[in-house]
Each structure stands twice: as structure tokens, then as C-alpha cells.
Automatic annotation (TrEMBL):
Residues forming the catalytic site: H74
UniProt entry tagged with the keyword Cell membrane: no
BP terms from Gene Ontology: riboflavin biosynthetic process
Pathway: Cofactor biosynthesis; riboflavin biosynthesis; riboflavin from 2-hydroxy-3-oxobutyl phosphate and 5-amino-6-(D-ribitylamino)uracil: step 1/2
Name the record gives this protein: 6,7-dimethyl-8-ribityllumazine synthase
One Gene Ontology term, aspect cellular component: cytosol
Originating organism: Novosphingobium fuchskuhlense
PANTHER family: 6,7-DIMETHYL-8-RIBITYLLUMAZINE SYNTHASE, 6,7-DIMETHYL-8-RIBITYLLUMAZINE SYNTHASE DMRL SYNTHASE LUMAZINE SYNTHASE
Binding site for 5-amino-6-(D-ribitylamino)uracil: F11, A42, L43, E44, V66, V67, I68, N98
Reaction it catalyzes: (2S)-2-hydroxy-3-oxobutyl phosphate + 5-amino-6-(D-ribitylamino)uracil = 6,7-dimethyl-8-(1-D-ribityl)lumazine + phosphate + 2 H2O + H(+)
């Protein structure tokens, strides 16, 4: 049994709830323990994972968030930099799944967040599980 931390950027409550539910279900189905913490936005997710990892309490992480394009360049910053931060952690050897949606509108987000449809939260959790297994294999 491993211990996972879901780090969610709570920007769109209903969409977040679906993504977290999908991620939690995928992890608990494999018998793993799950905790959830909340940060203000996707830009805070990588930093929060770094802080959590320094505690030594967790084996893996799932980044959950929703970034929807607005009117300005801010979308590119939030979408690109949050992904870059998560990828940097992955390349440092952390088992992190990226479940941060970066979409044009809420309709696209809904299809992807819903566990009964694209289940991107569950998909991200499964990616974290694969990385954790690879870490054990190559230890
Ligand atoms: N526009 C979205 C944000 N923006 C907020 C940033 O992530 C960050 O919290 C702020 O700039 C303070 O550092 N975050 C999302 O998760 N989703 C968005 O659509
Ligand atoms: C992530 C975004 O693009 C968004 O929430 C910000 O919207 P805007 O560009 O209209 O300020």
C-alpha cells in the first residue's frame, strides 16, 4: 500500500470534484491511501508538491486542476507553467500524474473531468501509479 497526495487547484468546484473523485477511485481501487490538499490555482500545484515531498510522507502525487482559456495571455502562462512545473518534478524522479485540464471552455472540461466519460483524474492517478512502480523496479 502506498500513500498518495492529490494536490488540487480549486478553481472550478464542480469540475474539481469530478477530477478528484476519479483520481481517488483509481488509487483506492488498487488499495492505496489518499489524502487531498487544496491550493488556490494551478500555478501553486508544483510548489505544493515540493513542500509535501520534503515531508517524506508520500509515495506519489496527482496534480488536479482546470485551466480554461480567458481573454488574455494569462491562459498560456497558467497552462504552460503548471505543466512545466509538474514535468520538472517528474524528471526529478517523483511519481506525479498530471490531471490539470487545459481547455477552451467548460464543455470541454466537463467531458474530461467526468469519471463516467474521459476520466482525466483517474488517468492521471494511473500515470502516477505507473511511475511509482517504475521507481521500485529501477531502485
Ligand atoms: N486562471 C486560472 C488560474 N489562475 C490562477 C493561478 O493559477 C494562480 O493561482 C494565481 O496567479 C496566483 O499565483 N488557475 C487555475 O487553476 N485555473 C485557471 O483557469
Ligand atoms: C486562465 C485564464 O486564461 C483565465 O482564467 C484568465 O482569464 P482572462 O485572460 O480573461 O483574465
Amino acid at each position: 500500500m502506498a500513500k498518495f497526495l492529490i494536490v488540487e487547484a480549486r478553481f472550478y468546484d464542480d469540475l474539481n470534484d469530478m477530477l478528484v473523485a476519479g483520481a481517488r477511485a483509481a488509487l483506492e481501487a488498487e488499495g492505496h491511501a489518499v489524502e487531498v490538499i487544496t491550493v488556490p490555482g494551478a500555478l501553486e500545484i508544483p510548489g505544493a508538491i515540493v513542500l509535501a515531498d520534503q515531508s517524506g510522507q508520500y509515495d506519489g502525487y496527482v496534480a488536479i486542476g482546470v485551466v480554461i482559456r480567458g481573454e488574455t495571455y494569462h491562459f498560456e502562462i497558467v497552462a504552460g507553467e503548471s505543466a512545466r512545473g509538474v514535468m520538472a518534478l517528474t524528471m526529478d524522479g517523483l511519481a506525479v500524474g498530471n490531471g490539470i485540464l487545459t481547455v477552451e471552455n467548460e464543455a470541454q472540461a466537463l467531458v474530461r473531468a467526468d469519471p463516467a466519460q474521459k476520466d482525466k483524474g483517474g488517468e492521471a492517478a494511473k500515470a502516477a501509479l505507473v511511475l511509482l512502480a517504475l521507481r521500485s523496479r529501477f531502485a
